[in-house]
């Protein structure tokens, strides 16, 4: 599948998610989705603002919040407190965040899913969602320090 095909499918799935909750993929929202698709795996709101000069800053933040509420965009908080985002089409994963340079890497673990099931069983909670961010030094920063 080409990048253009993936972007089209992603835009269509976002449009469906919006429509299912009574929202439309307006021109500014479409422009922001296209910008987010071009920014890659993780980005901050200011990246979106800068890449979409025709869309107001408040619209960027409102759209990010709406897409986050719809599960289309996921938010994580970096070690310095900055909110970073990614489109949620990548499937479930967690993040490794370098506390030195801020690099973000994704990882998935079936073992963690088992731990969550065990927590739910022991506590009686129904786990609806979770977020895991592991902080440390990336290989490049470790090499510089060690």
Keywords:
146 residues, alpha+beta, Arc Repressor Mutant, subunit A, Dna Ligase, domain 1, 2 domains, 3-stranded antiparallel β-sheet, 3-stranded mixed β-sheet, 6 helices, 6 strands, 49% helix, 17% strand, flat
Question: What secondary-structure arrangement, pairings included, does this model have?
Answer:
Elements: H1 3-20, H2 27-39, E1 43-44, H3 45-51, H4 57-69, E2 73-77, E3 83-87, E4 94-98, E5 104-107, H5 110-123, E6 133-136, H6 139-145
Parallel strand pairs: 4-6
Antiparallel strand pairs: 1-3, 2-3, 4-5
CATH topology of the largest domain: Arc Repressor Mutant, subunit A
User: How many beta-strand elements?
Assistant: 6
Q: Spans of 5+ residues with little confidence (pLDDT < 50)?
A: none
Number of helical regions = 6
> If you compute it from the alpha carbons, what radius of gyration comes out, rounded to the nearest whole angstrom?
17 Å
Spatial sequence of strands, sheet with the most strands: 1-3-2
Number of domains: 2
Distance between the termini: 41 Å
Structure commentary:
Helix content is 49%, strand content 17%. It has 146 residues and is of the alpha+beta class. It has two domains: 1-90, Arc Repressor Mutant, subunit A; 92-146, Ferric-uptake regulator, C-terminal dimerisarion domain (Dna Ligase, domain 1, 2-Layer Sandwich). The chain has a three-stranded antiparallel sheet. The chain has a three-stranded mixed sheet with strand order 5-4-6, with no helix packed on it. The mean pLDDT is 85.
């Amino acid at each position: 599948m080409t990048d253009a095909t993936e972007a089209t499918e992603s835009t269509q799935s976002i449009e469906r998610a919006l429509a299912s909750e009574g929202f439309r993929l307006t021109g500014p929202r479409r422009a922001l989705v296209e910008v987010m698709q071009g920014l890659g795996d993780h980005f901050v709101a200011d990246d979106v603002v800068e890449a979409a000069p025709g869309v107001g800053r408040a619209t960027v933040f409102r759209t990010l919040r709406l897409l986050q509420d719809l599960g289309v965009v996921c938010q994580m908080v970096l070690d310095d407190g900055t909110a970073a985002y990614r489109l949620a089409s990548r499937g479930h994963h967690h993040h490794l965040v370098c506390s030195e340079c801020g690099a973000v890497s994704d990882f998935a673990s079936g073992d963690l899913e088992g731990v969550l099931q065990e927590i739910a069983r022991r506590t009686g909670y129904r786990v609806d969602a979770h977020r895991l961010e592991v902080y440390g030094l990336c290989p490049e920063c470790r090499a510089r320090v060690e």
